[in-house]
Amino acid sequence: MLLYSCVDKGNKESNIDFSMQKLSESTFSETISNYSIVKLETAEESKINVITKVLINNEHIYVLNHWENRQEILIFSQAGDYIDKISSGNNSTKSFSGIIDFDIHPVTGDICLLDQKQKKLVFFKEDGRFVKSTPINYLAGEIAYGVKAGKVFVVLHTIQSDAESDINDEIIVYDENDKLLDTYFEYQKENQPLQNKRITLMKRGDNVMFLKEGTNTLYEIGLKKCDIKSTFTFPKPVLPVNKIYGAFFSGDVDVSQYVYDIDYFESDSILYTTFSSTDGDYIGIFNKETNCSTLYNMLLDPSCKCGIKIEIAGVYQNNFIVQIPRTKIADVLEVLDNGRTKCTNDEIFELIDNMKPGENPILLLLELK
Length: 369
Description:
It is a single chain. By secondary structure, the protein is mainly β. Helix content is 7%, strand content 43%. It has three helices and 25 strands. Residues 1-10 have low confidence and may be disordered.
């Protein structure tokens, strides 16, 4: 039995329907209003290997870049010019072992790095100056700041590393002075712990939203409470956490009966989710202004080539940030804008067409209807 402490079920919630009755016969590109791109400068110090997260704040773009032996925050201008970086490989005096996630303090603008291995938060100014390091008592995989009634708080999504772990709760909430405020969602010891890379924490304005793995429920995490905000209806039930191991490793669970690998993002006006089943990969679009939802199966999209996924790296205002490696630009644009009509700036296409091997990927700011 799961225990959800401080959950106000009387709070107004909504159901968002991504069932098969919402499956669209149109192409995914028809959901796109317009887009723009940012070409990230390729310099010796700014070479990108794997992007796992992008945040845009004030005049800067922050890119979490993963190499095999280090992680770093690359800092660019909004035009894509390289400025500086914070790297786990060049901070011996202000040591941290790696960066699993990061967020920007909503008031000070400080960059907060989550060092999973050393169990601490490390803070830097926007110009890369070290501020402080704060230990945490949990193995965490995600971090997000929230603001409620003018008060800043931080939400950590912990990881249950093994059955004997001393971590009891999935969500930990601190105030900005590192005081523990609350915990939510007690871990069940009988569940097989998994190192999952799913994104579960997302911002809705100043609020922190949490899509709990193995459920169809979206929560709002606050200073003193955790409210159910939305439930999703998918074509099939969501694969529960306690059946993940049986479905993918032991073969004891029929995975065809479920949907899984759910990711969720939202901009000011659009809620965007991706999920998979044995029938293929799906994209669900919910327009908050019209309360209309639509479902897309990329295998049924004639403009979608096999193996192409729309990889969302972050959200900025009303735009979804898509990273596109040079080698996949042509195929991804075929899905997003096969007629090259969504963008009126011909310089963008010239820039894309002239990209050379070894250059950094572009960031595409995608606005959906």
